[in-house]
C-alpha cells in the first residue's frame, strides 16, 4: 500500500523535476521559478526543506544528484542556457543560517547557445562526469579531472544529434563489457519522420562517442528517457516517455561477431507499449532494481508497470497525483498487488499482473 | 481604414495577413519603425536607411533614403521613428548627435527635412508625441533631452537629467504633457514637458543602466522598464510613488521592451547581447516566456508590433542584417515543451511526484479534450486573443510512501543482513539462506537454496546401506554436530524459539567473521562436512516441506528432480576422482587450518573413523549420483536468470557460497559486473558492513582490490607518539605494543576506540563496559574520558 504524503513545496511556478539522492534520504526539486529546493527526510519520515536558493535566471528544467562519493553535489540545468554544479557546505554556519544548509555554486557550464534541457551525472565508475543536452541538439560531456575540485570541468565531448534534445540517460551498467553509453531523446515535433531516440556509445579506439543505434519506431516527441538500473543484467532496458510509455530491451550482439572497433550492435526489442495515460507521458522512472517502471502523464496519474515471469509487462498500480489518499477499489487492488508482488518478482506477477491489467485496461 | 482593421482584428480575423518571412538587408539594422498603416517599415542602421513595403509573401524595398554622393554621418542612425499621425514624417537619431527629420512627401530624391545639431554626443532615442503632430523628443548620451517643435529651427526646451546618459525617452499615452526618460545609472525620471527645469519624479528602477521603457498602450499608467540587470519591471505610475507590480527575469540584459497590443499583460523583449531571441512574456508569469522567436542569428536590435491593434505580427531587425516578420503561431512556446511533471522512484519504493496542479485537481474538467497539449496553443489564443492561458501555475508535490511494514525493498535489506555467506559448511549456509528466504516469503529463492544444497552437499540418492553406515557412525560419534543440524532443520520448519536462537548465532558468526577465515579453508570444510551429514534425514525433510508448502513451485521442483533421480539407472559417468572431494586430502588440510569453529573441532577429533566413511561415500557417489559438475551449467543458467530478473543479490550470494564450484563456469567479467552491481546496491542502502563482507569474500581480483585501492592507514604509536613504520603492532622505537586495550591489556586488532583527550582506549566492548561503571580512564591516567 502506498501512503500519499503531500508536501507544501511552495515553488512559485511549475515544478519540473524531482530527484532522490543515492541513499533516498534527500530530495531535490526544481522549478520554473528559477530556484532549487533540497528536502531532507526526518526521523519521523517528514520531508523538510533545508535549502532553497535561486539557481538560474530562467526555468530550471532538471536537477540531479552526484554520487555521494563526490560529496553532496547537485547539478541543475536551465532555460538560461547554462548548467550549474552546486555543492553543499556544512559547518561554518552562523546562528541565522542554522538548519539551513548552504549550497555554493562550483561552476557554470555556458557552452550551450540554447536552453539546456537535461543534465545527468555519469555512473560512478566513470569518474566525475556529467552530460548535458540542449534544445539545439548538442549533447555535451564534461569531466572534472580532479574530483576534489568541482570548479574545474573540461568539455570532453560534443555530440551533435541534429534534433532538438529533451532528455538524456546514461547507461548505468558497471560492467566492463559495456562501454559507456548514453541515450538521447528528442522532443522535436516537426512532421519529418525520424527516430527520436538515439543511442551513442563510447568507442575506445577513436575515443569518441558514436551513434550506435536509433530507435526508428519512436517518431513522436520524446519527453523523458531512462535506462533501468542494470544490476548485472547482460542486456539493457530503456523506458521512453512519448505519446505513450514504451519499454525497449537492448541486447548487445556479441562483439566477436561484429567487426572489432566499430560500435556495438544491439538487438532491439520493444517489450511493452502502453497508452493507458491517454495523453502525453512526461516522465518515466525505474525502481532501484529495474523491475518496476513508474510513468506519469497528462492525466495526472502515476502508473506502475511490471513484468511477469513471461516478460509480459502489466499495469500494477495507479496513483492519483493530487496527494489525496488513494481510494477506489480498482486502483487499490492494483497498488496492494504492486507492493506485494515486488516481494517476489517471479511468482505472483503472473497472477496480479493479469488481474490488474484486466481492471485497468 | 484604421477603424476597420481594428474591428476585424477584434473579431479574431484581421486585415493583416502574411507569414513568417524575412528579407536580407545590406547592413546591420539598429532600429526599425512601422508606418501607422502597417504596410511599410523603415529600417535604420549605421549603413542603412530604407523603407520596405510589407507584402503578403515578402518584403519589397520601396525607398532608399541614404542618398547623396558622400556618406554623411548624419545618416548613421541609432534610432528611427515613424510618426503615428503623419505617414510622411520620420525622424532619426544619428550617432554623431544629430536629429534629422524626413518628409516622404518631398518630390526630390533627398527626403531630408530638418537637421538639429544640438546634442553633443550620440542621440540614443527619438520619439514623436502620440497626438501632437509637430512635437519631437530626443534623448542623448550627453545626458540631455530636447524637445523640438518641427515648425521651428531649434529645440524649444532642454531637459537635463543631471546624471549620466539618457537611454530612452517615451511620451506618455495617458498624460499629454508627461514623458519618461531612463538613464544609465538605473534611474527613471518623469518630466512635464512644460517644466524643463526639474523632473516631476524620479525613482531607481534597476541595478545598472535602464536601456528601455514603454508605456502601456491601454492608458493605464503602467510603465515597463528593462535594464542590464536582465530584468523587466512594470511600474504602476498612478500612485504617488512608482510601485513595482511585476518583475520579469530574462536571461540576458534587456535592450527593448514593447507591450503587446490587445494583450493587457504581455510584452515583448529583446536583448542587447548574448541572446538573439525575442521573447513575449506574460508579466503575471514572470519566469518563463510565453512565446519565443528564435530566427535571428545575431543580436536583435529593433522590435515593433506591426499594427497598433494586432497582437499576432511582430517585426524585428537585427545585427545579422535581416528584417523579419514573425507570426505568432510560428512562435515556439517554451512552457508548452516544458515538463509539467516530475517523477522519481525512491530507494525504498517510494515515489516523489510533482505535477501541475491543474492536472491533478481538475481531472474531470479536462477529460473532454485529452491530449490537447499537443495542439499548439495559438488555437486557443485565437478564440480569445487578448488574454489566454492561466496566469500562474503551480505544482503539487507529494511523496507516495510505501508503508513501513510493506516497504517494497525491505526484503532486500533483510535478506542482505541475514544471509550467511561464509564461515560455515555449504549445507548450513544453504539451509540458513533458504530459511531466511522462506521467512521473507520468497519461496522461489528458498527453493533454489534448498536445491543447491541437494546438488552440492548431500549424497542425494545414496544407497541405504551406505547411508545407515554413515548415520550410525554420525549419531554415535558426532552428537554435537548432529544436534546442530537437527536444530537447524527444526527451526526451518517453524519452531519460533529455536529460530531466534539460531538467528542470533548466525549474526554473531557473521560479525565475528575474521580475516583469517579465508574462503578456501571454508570450502574445504564444507565439503567434508557435507558428506558427513546424515543426508537422507535432511533431504527427506526438505522434500516434505516442499510438497506441503510450495505449491507454486511444484512444477519447478519437478523439472529439476528427474535430472538427479535419473542417473540411478543411467550409465555411470566416468569422472576424475580429483574433482570429487577425497577424504584424506581434506582432512589433512583441515588439520592444518587454524579454524576454531566448534563443529570443526569436533570433526577433526573424529578423523580416524571418518576417513573410512568418507572414502566409501565418495566411491558410491561417483557411481550412484551425478557429480555436482553435471549441474554447473544449470546453476550457471539459474544465476544468469536471477541476474536478468534484477535479483543480483541472489546471483552474488550463490556465487560466494558456492565459491570454486561455480566460479569457473561464469566468466570473470560477468562476475565482476554482478559484484559491482550488488555492492552498489548495498551501499545505497547503507549496508556498509555487508558490502565490505561481499568485497572481502569475492574472488574477483577487481573486486577484492576495491578496498585496497587508495586506502592508507597512518598509525602512530600511542606511547611515543611517533609514526609506526613497522608493519607489526610493536613500535620499533619504544619496543612496546602500540595499541593495547586499557582494560584487558591485549593488543587490539580491528576496531580500536580511544579517548581523544588522553589517547587511551581499547576494545569497543571493553571500553563500553568500563564506562558504565566509571568515567575515569581505565588506564589509570586520571583523565575523565569522553567518547562521542
Describe the structure.
The complex is a heterodimer of chains A (361) and B (788). Chain A has a domain of 162 residues: Methylamine Dehydrogenase, Chain H (7 Propeller), CATH 2.130.10. In chain A, the strands form 6 sheets. Chain A has a 4-stranded antiparallel β-sheet, with no helix packed on it. In chain A, strands 6-7-8-9 form a 4-stranded antiparallel β-sheet, with no helix packed on it. By secondary structure, chain A is mainly β. In chain A, a hairpin with a 7-residue loop joins strand 10 and strand 11. Chain A contains 2 helices and 25 strands. In chain A, helix 1 runs antiparallel to helix 2. The relative contact order of chain B is 0.05. Among the domains of chain B are: 125 residues, Methylamine Dehydrogenase, Chain H (7 Propeller); 47 residues, no CATH class; 131 residues, no CATH class. In chain B, helix 19 packs across helix 21. With 788 residues, chain B is an alpha+beta fold. In chain B, the strands form 9 sheets. Chain B has a 4-stranded antiparallel β-sheet with strand order 1-28-27-26. A 4-stranded antiparallel β-sheet of chain B has the order 2-3-4-5, with no helix packed on it. The longest helix of chain B has 18 residues. Chain B is built from 24 helices and 33 strands. The chains are: A mainly beta (361), B alpha+beta (788). At the A-B interface, strand 1, strand 2, strand 3, strand 22 and strand 23 of A face helix 2, strand 29, strand 30, helix 3 and strand 31 of B. Chain A: It comes from Monodelphis domestica (Gray short-tailed opossum). Chain A: It is found in: Chromosome, Centromere, Kinetochore; Lysosome membrane; Nucleus, Nuclear pore complex. Chain A: It holds the Pfam family WD40. Chain A: One of its GO terms (biological process) is cell division. Chain A: One of its GO terms (molecular function) is structural molecule activity. Chain B: One of its GO terms (cellular component) is GATOR2 complex.
Topology of this structure?
The complex is a heterodimer of chains A (361) and B (788).
Chain A: E1 2-7, E2 15-20, E3 26-31, E4 35-41, E5 47-54, E6 60-65, E7 73-78, E8 83-89, E9 102-109, E10 116-121, E11 129-134, E12 138-143, E13 154-160, E14 165-170, E15 181-186, E16 197-203, E17 208-214, E18 224-227, E19 236-241, E20 245-252, E21 266-274, E22 281-286, E23 292-297, E24 301-307, E25 313-320, H1 329-341, H2 349-360
Chain B: H1 2-10, E1 21-24, E2 31-34, E3 40-44, E4 49-54, E5 59-64, E6 77-82, E7 89-94, E8 99-103, E9 112-116, E10 123-128, E11 135-140, E12 144-149, E13 155-160, E14 166-171, E15 178-183, E16 187-192, E17 201-204, E18 210-215, E19 222-227, E20 231-236, E21 243-249, E22 254-259, E23 266-271, E24 278-282, E25 291-293, E26 300-307, E27 310-318, E28 322-327, H2 334-337, E29 341-345, E30 351-356, H3 357-361, H4 363-366, H5 378-383, E31 395-402, H6 410-418, H7 426-439, H8 443-456, H9 464-477, H10 479-492, H11 496-512, H12 519-532, H13 535-549, H14 554-565, H15 583-592, H16 598-605, H17 607-624, H18 628-644, H19 648-658, H20 660-663, H21 668-684, H22 688-697, H23 701-704, E32 753-754, E33 761-762, H24 764-773
Antiparallel strand pairs in B: 1-28, 2-3, 3-4, 4-5, 6-7, 7-8, 8-9, 10-11, 11-12, 12-13, 14-15, 15-16, 16-17, 18-19, 19-20, 20-21, 22-23, 23-24, 24-25, 26-27, 27-28, 29-30, 30-31, 32-33
Helix pairs in contact in B: 7-8, 7-10, 9-17, 10-11, 12-15, 18-19, 19-21, 21-22
